[in-house]
Amino acid sequence: MALLKDILYKTNLISVAGDMNTDLGGICFDSRESKQGCLFIAVRGTQTDGHQYIDQAIAKGASVVVCEDLPAKLLDTVTYVKVDNSARALGFIASNFYGNPSSRLKLVAVTGTNGKTTTVTLLHQLFGKLGYKSGLLSTVENKIGEEVLPATHTTPDAIALNRLLKEMADQGCTHCFMEASSHAIVQHRVAGLQFAGAVFTNISHDHLDYHGTFDEYIKAKKMLFDGLPSSAFALVNEDDKRGAIMLQNTKAVKKSYSLKHMSDFRAKVLSNSIQGLELQIDNIDVWFKLVGDFNAYNLLAVYGTAVLLDEPTEEVLTQLSDVDPARGRFQLVPSTSGIVAIVDYAHTPDALENVLKTIKSFRTGNETVVTVVGCGGNRDKTKRPLMAAISCQLSDKVILTSDNPRFEDPMEIIKDMQTGVGPSNYRKTLVVPDRKEAIKTAISISHPGDIVLVAGKGHETYQEIQGVKHPFDDKKVVTEVLKAFSE
Ligand SMILES: CC(=O)N[C@H]1[C@@H](OP(=O)(O)OP(=O)(O)OC[C@H]2O[C@@H](n3ccc(=O)[nH]c3=O)[C@H](O)[C@@H]2O)O[C@H](CO)[C@@H](O)[C@@H]1O[C@H](C)C(=O)N[C@@H](C)C(=O)N[C@H](CCC(=O)O)C(=O)O
Ligand SMILES: Nc1ncnc2c1ncn2[C@@H]1O[C@H](COP(=O)(O)OP(=O)(O)OP(=O)(O)O)[C@@H](O)[C@H]1O
Ligand SMILES: N[C@H](CCC[C@H](N)C(=O)O)C(=O)O
Ligand SMILES: [Mg+2]
């Protein structure tokens, strides 16, 4: 039984009209999901305002309405709760409704522009190897132990999130490793959660369409650390100058990791090849299956987190050495053709630069680097010319193509990218809007030993065009095309 008065614990109430002892049959923030005896919470969104759907939610059976602005006419049969911030209240309501599941787990959130999925995926695997059952909430998939559940968002909405955490705790998970996207933090999807710790990987250019300015984007990430309790740890990448900003106002225990400076957790890159990385961590030399300096940061973040969760250092390093990269992150596509094809989720300028620099560092002779790249529609437009420019600087040939155009015209997205291609690089680029054709083109112009990078979609198994998700898997397409060319 879930009584309204208990569910409202910790929400900032302004007024209540009606019965606080109402027994709730459910909670929802979408009127289309409202049902008999449920609580509907009206949230202001980016497309519309949930307050417009209060009548519809009541018509479908809602007996409690939580909102920031009360309707002009109140019904006797409904309890109305006025709060200062519905989205934030939703976080607490969802936590309370599911019995505060985060308090039953050691919950660690990872935020940052790049590396979140990699870090949480490594943590989930590591803790499995250390003998724990743990949960995972990531862009690629959600997991309860080894059971895989599909993910729709990097960070689920507050209701889905708390439902999943409850399921994890009920099924005996001791830990959960989750990504906290900047969208989720500002939309308070994580409000009310009890974190054991939070990790900051890095911050670079992305999502300015949503946050408006880079400062607002930084503030969004910082909110996660500002909200941590003193019992939690805040672990930040010291080599990113915004790491210190994340720690400015936190009550949590401050910890840092670095490849360059003195800090709590330090690593040195001993060797870096297409087979993996050799790092020295705490004076121990360890081999890892992940590729690229940027993954040295992810591995160090994972190591630091595990140690802060009281796991023994040597055992952590032994087990971490055996973990696999996340799907679609620097994934080599096997082939007999001799062409080295890599699928990677780089969809920001920084990620693309890191991946291409890593690829360049592996060149031993005259191998050509061909990059297939597009940019997502209805997302930050300012990253488009930057991603094209970086691709040109660090590749021999660039095929500009489509990513997920969503509701934009693919050619308009490519034109935005072309503004980043200076005259000296015109001849390096080809425009092939159809992604499969673009991959075919890249492979057809490559020879054994050459490297083809297919960037931007990583693990995704669809291409989103005009609201429809068409099956499309870079790895499968690359495999098919390589096979066809080797026959
Ligand atoms: C831009 C954005 O983040 N949007 C998210 C947001 O929706 P919104 O604010 O746009 O909602 P809205 O459509 O304006 O509706 C406002 C309210 O009216 C309600 N409504 C609406 C219609 C109706 O008939 N009845 C009704 O009650 C809605 O349920 C909502 O509560 O809140 C919704 C519920 O949590 C999310 O599903 C939705 O994600 C959209 C689909 C999305 O694409 N989000 C992406 C950008 C996102 O969140 N990405 C991050 C990762 C980014 C990264 O890489 O770092 C993620 O965490 O996945
Ligand atoms: N620590 C890092 N620093 C910079 N780039 C990285 C780092 N880790 C991974 N990358 C690059 O960023 C891409 C995305 O990595 P990952 O999926 O781990 O990040 P994410 O933060 O979860 O991204 P998203 O915001 O889309 O969920 C990788 O494919 C790789 O190209
Ligand atoms: N979480 C990111 C993923 C981008 C992936 C890329 N393939 C694209 O569609 O832009 C976003 O929603 O902006
Ligand atoms: Mg992710």
Describe this structure in words.
- Meso-2,6-diaminopimelate binds at residues 379, 403-406, 456, 460.
- Pathway: Cell wall biogenesis; peptidoglycan biosynthesis.
- The protein has 16 helices and 24 strands.
- The chain has 487 residues and is of the alpha/beta class.
- Strands 9-8-7-10-6-11-12-13-14-15-16 form an eleven-stranded mixed sheet, sandwiched between helices.
- The longest helix has 16 residues, at 293-308.
- The N and C termini lie far apart (64 Å).
- The model has no long low-confidence stretch (mean pLDDT 96).
- The structure holds ligand UAG, adenosine-5'-triphosphate, 2,6-diaminopimelic acid and magnesium ion (MG).
- Magnesium ion binds at residues 116-117, 138-139, 154, 179.
Which helices and strands appear, and what pairs or packs with what?
Layout (H helix, E strand, L loop, with lengths): L3 H4 L5 E5 L8 E3 L9 E4 L12 H6 L4 E4 L11 E5 L2 H12 L8 E6 L4 H14 L4 E4 L4 E3 L2 E3 L8 H13 L4 E5 L2 H5 L10 E4 L7 H4 L2 H13 L6 E5 L5 H5 L5 E6 L6 E9 L2 E6 L2 E5 L4 H16 L4 H8 L10 E3 L6 E5 L4 H13 L7 E5 L9 H12 L2 E4 L9 H9 L10 E3 L3 H10 L6 E5 L6 E4 L2 E4 L2 H13 L1
Parallel strand pairs: 2-3, 3-4, 4-5, 6-10, 6-11, 7-10, 11-12, 12-13, 13-14, 18-22, 19-20, 19-22, 20-21
Antiparallel strand pairs: 1-5, 7-8, 8-9, 14-15, 15-16, 17-18, 23-24
The structure holds ligand UAG, adenosine-5'-triphosphate, 2,6-diaminopimelic acid (API) and magnesium ion.
GO molecular function, one term: UDP-N-acetylmuramoylalanyl-D-glutamate-2,6-diaminopimelate ligase activity
Pathway: Cell wall biogenesis; peptidoglycan biosynthesis
Keywords: ATP-binding, Cell cycle, Cell division, Cell shape, Cell wall biogenesis/degradation, Cytoplasm, Ligase, Magnesium, Nucleotide-binding, Peptidoglycan synthesis
